[in-house]
Design brief:
The protein is mostly helical and 132 residues long. It folds into two domains: 82 residues; 41 residues. It is 79% helix and 0% strand. The longest helix has 32 residues. The model has no long low-confidence stretch (mean pLDDT 83).
Length: 132
Amino acid sequence: MEKYYRAIDNDSFETFLKKQKKDVEWDCDLAIMQAGLTLASLGVQEGWETLEGIGIKAKDLKQAQQKIRGRIMNRELKKKDNPKETEPTDFFVMLARVRKEGYHIDSEILLPEWIGTLKDIKQSNERNNSKI
């Protein structure tokens, strides 16, 4: 995936990496929240400290669970607001767009050929745009 994105559009790859980083950070935060809640439910003071360290201040377990559910819900709503960020572009949709541009491409094209074709189209578009 890295080779493809770097060859076609390095900015897209950087965007992809930022999204992956946010996803990993969220997974870590969620694990910390769950571990803190478990420890707190067992009566271990460090569980409450862990929850406070991640920004969840609660009087009791029920309130802590509600705040954690709220964060989970906010995360899910943000993903629904930006569906294009979570869905990769389908190869066949891209192939159809390229064919619409007038290129004849076999659907069994190899990845290096596909990358070269997309680079050629991008360079042609940049040249045409610079002439305008």
